[in-house]
Amino acid sequence: MINRSEIECWLTDMDGVLVHENHPVPGAAELLQQWRDEDKPYLVLTNNSIFTPRDLSARLKASGLDVPESAIWTSALATADFLKEQIPGGSAFVIGEAGITTALHEAGFIMTETDPDYVVIGETRNYSFESITKAIRLIGNGSRFIATNPDATGPSADGPLPATGAVAALITKATGREPYIVGKPNPMMFRSALNKIGAHSETTGMIGDRMDTDIVAGIEAGLHTVLVLTGISDQKEIDRYPFRPHEVLNSVADLLNK
Predict the structure, then answer these.
(1) How far apart are CA 185 and CA 150, in angstroms?
(2) Which of 15, 81, 151, 209 does the annotation list as catalytic?
(3) Which pTM value belongs to this model?
(4) Do residues 150 and 164 make contact, with C-beta atoms less than 8 angstroms apart?
(5) What are 58-117's pLDDT values in tens digits?
(6) InterPro entries attached here (predicted)?
(7) Potential cystine with 109: which of 100, 104, 129, 170 (Cβ 3.0-4.6 Å)?
């Protein structure tokens, strides 16, 4: 196990780690500045595939955090990256927002409702019965089934909302086909992030707030894992799992140089 001082690059989750309900977590701005001062490559990761990196960069800036869009890696980008490797210049029927459609367009994909190579389910607030029906029929006719992330619910001011995983489960029930999921906890999302910044797993740290996505994927990708307690996990949650993060910290403020 490497010492934290030997870490050359960082991956960090966004919600619950750097921001909490659109407010910066104390220490987050200082940590980002520390990485810039030390010239350490980093990426901010999110399983949310609704937004483009530009949208997220603007959202973080409004929260008081300066993160360029080039330093943001979403499940939508990871999905587009994966599909481009599988079938360059392929086609897809997409249920999702600008995050996934823009990423696929930039990866050279064509959006179509006629015999697509892939049916891709991403995050959206506008699921329609018609588009879900179309997805079910296309998968039944042989299109490969992909989901950007497995999250069953997402947060809102009024409580949980159904998310990608819930809609994918509906389609699975109707087709008998499970999607291939690219986002966390698939370590592929971390490997594509490492490739983007030219990092090596043995000298990269991952900061997250969820045992079931961030930490397990970080461990499987061979990263130094740091769980912070500013999101949804507490000691009771940690004890439920058979694996452990390398470090448990109160917040990202504990990563600041003293």
Answers:
(1) 8
(2) 15
(3) 0.94
(4) yes
(5) 999 999 999 999 999 999 999 999 999 999 999 999 999 999 999 999 999 999 999 999
(6) HAD-like_sf, HAD-SF_hydro_IIA, HAD_sf
(7) 104
